[in-house]
Fold this protein.
Amino acid sequence: TQLLEQSPQFLSIQEGENLTVYCNSSSVFSSLQWYRQEPGEGPVLLVTVVTGGEVKKLKRLTFQFGDARKDSSLHITAAQPGDTGLYLCAGRPSGYALNFGKGTSLLVTP
Amino acid sequence: EAQVTQNPRYLITVTGKKLTVTCSQNMNHEYMSWYRQDPGLGLRQIYYSMNVEVTDKGDVPEGYKVSRKEKRNFPLILESPSPNQTSLYFCASSFGTGGEQYFGPGTRLTVT
């Protein structure tokens, strides 16, 4: 069961542009995680958001957890080619099984 | 170096021939899990383990078995592989259920 819906599915932008990707659900999550995956490798954790309304910044990346803890967003400022990859959100609505969204595939061209 | 290792990295096999994909972590993590990643379907959890001798089904457990006899190892067993199990498989581990998941490098399996 795919409980986390990510949008857009694909995004192709030029270096220097800003972008936002979304992770939405009808379920409440105690926390959400964002991962980035590069081709041929496993996902790597970027951030975990825990508190409703929380905003976390990681250099040019800003993560927000919705007040109701059902959604999250990732905003990238002045994207660079090194930001290219698949961005995945993940969370546990209940129990211990971890649920991933299908991901947003980002391509940043010079 | 803290890491999750998987073997083999690539495997081509035939329908019905039992196989095992090994997973090992050196971080003393309690929680381990297996995922498969397919185009258009994303990452889906197959099985997870909270600790030694404690395992449970994820979203897509049919056709797979796991065991957790030691804390560091969590092998994935396909008793009778079928072509629909052709996929990219990832093992992951973390300290707790809410902790950062450390992923292995992946195993690309093709069943003909």
In short: The two ends of chain A are 37 Å apart (CA to CA).
